[in-house]
C-alpha cells in the first residue's frame, strides 16, 4: 500500500470507526455466533496477490462484527469498564506510525521522556507521596505496564529479589534457592485472580487471607498470618492490598495493613486497577490514604480513565529495587546515557515496549483533568441511580454496598432465582452483565462501563431486568 492509497483508506477507516462508535447503541451488545463461526467465512489460506482495500473494508461487517461483543455499548454492564476515547484512538494511530521500540532511552528518547513526564503528571493528580515521582529527584518513578497483572508480578519479583538479598546477607551459608522457597506472600481472598497467579508465576506461596463481612483485609488479620508463618520458619515477603476488588469493589484497610508491613519489613503493593482512576477526584482521594506505606502502587488508566488499552500505571518508591532485580546488560543495548535516565526495559518483563504514553498525553490535553473527572463522577451518579431503582422494587436486594460505578444485586430468595434471571438476561441479549459470588451468595454485578452511558440507558437496563424478573418463579 502506497501513501496515497493509505490516505484514502485511512479516511474511510476513520469514517467507519466514528460511525461504528456513534451507532453502537443500536447493535446487539452480545453476539449470537457459535464457536467456529468464522471458519467458513475465510479462505483456507492467505491471499497470494494483494486485495483491494474496499474488499477488506466490506469484510469488517461481514466477518468481524457478527462476532464482536460491543464493550463500548452503553448496554454493556459486565466486568469493569475498559476505556475508549477519540483522543486515545488518535494517539494509538500516531504510536502505530512512529512504531518505535522504547526499551532504552536511546532507542527513542521521546518515548522514555514523555512516559516519565506523564507518570509524574498522573502521580501528582493522585496526590501520590513525592517519593513515587521522578521530579522529587529521589529513587522513585513510574512506568507504564501492559496490565495490572504484569504490575503485580513485577512488584512480586522485585520484592523477592530484595528479600533474598537481605536474608542472604544475614545468613551467608544459606543458598538463594532455599531462601526463595521459604518466602510467603499475602493477599485477601477477594483479590483479583491475577494476584494468586503472580504467586504461581513468581514461585512464591500466596496466602489468601479471609475477610470479614465487609470483604476487607485488615492489618490485624495480616499480622496474625505473618506471625504464624514466622513461627513455622517461613519468611514473609510481599503483600498485595486491593482498593476496589473485582467482585464487589471493596477496599482493603491499607491504613492498618501499612504499619504491619512496616513492622515486619514486607513489600506492600497496592492494586487499584479499576478504582484508582477515581482518586483524581478530590472527593474520593481519601480512599488512597495509606499509600505512603506502599513500595509500589498500580492502577489502570485503561479501565476508567479514558485511555485505550493498554496502559497500566505502576509507581515505585525505589525503582532501583526493580532495576537491580532484572538487570542484564548486553553490548547491543548499551548507550552513552546509561544510568542518567531510566532504561525502561529494566522495569518490566518484556524487552520491547510501545509508545503508550502518547495516549495519556493526548487524553490529558484533549479532555483536560476536568473532562476525566466528569467521566468518573457521571459513572458514580449513574450507579447510584440504578441503586435507587433497585431499592424501590422489593423483589430485589443489594447484598453489598454499591461502590464507585458498581452495584451488586440479587433476587430475594434462593441463588437459583438469581441464576435464572441471569440466564434470561443472557438469552435476551439486550444488556450484558456478569455474576459474582461471595461465600454462598450468588449475585449479579451491574457495572457502568461505557463513556456514553446515559440515565436513559440505565433506565432501559432496569426495565429489562424488571420485566425478565417477572418470569422468574418464586421459591417453592
Ligand atoms: N486487579 C483488579 C482489582 C481488577 O479488577 C482487575 C481486572 O478487572 C485486575 C487486577 C486485572 O487487570 P489486568 O487485566 O489489567 O491485568
Automatic annotation (TrEMBL):
Protein name listed in UniProt: Aromatic-L-amino-acid decarboxylase
Entry EC no(s): 4.1.1.28
Family: Belongs to the group II decarboxylase family.
Cofactor: pyridoxal 5'-phosphate
Source lineage: Eukaryota, Metazoa, Ecdysozoa, Arthropoda, Crustacea
Gene3D superfamilies documented for this protein: Aspartate Aminotransferase, domain 1 (3.90.1150.10), dopa decarboxylase, N-terminal domain (1.20.1340.10), Type I PLP-dependent aspartate aminotransferase-like (Major domain) (3.40.640.10)
GO terms under cellular component: cytoplasm
Source taxon at top rank: Eukaryota
Keywords carried by this UniProt record: Catecholamine biosynthesis, Decarboxylase, Lyase, Pyridoxal phosphate
List of residues that carry N6-(pyridoxal phosphate)lysine: 303
BP GO annotations: amino acid metabolic process; carboxylic acid metabolic process; catecholamine biosynthetic process; serotonin biosynthetic process
Keyword Lyase belongs to the record: yes
Subunit annotation: Homodimer.
InterPro entries on file: Aromatic_deC, PyrdxlP-dep_de-COase, PyrdxlP-dep_Trfase, PyrdxlP-dep_Trfase_major, PyrdxlP-dep_Trfase_small, Pyridoxal-P_BS
Recorded GO MF terms: aromatic-L-amino-acid decarboxylase activity; pyridoxal phosphate binding
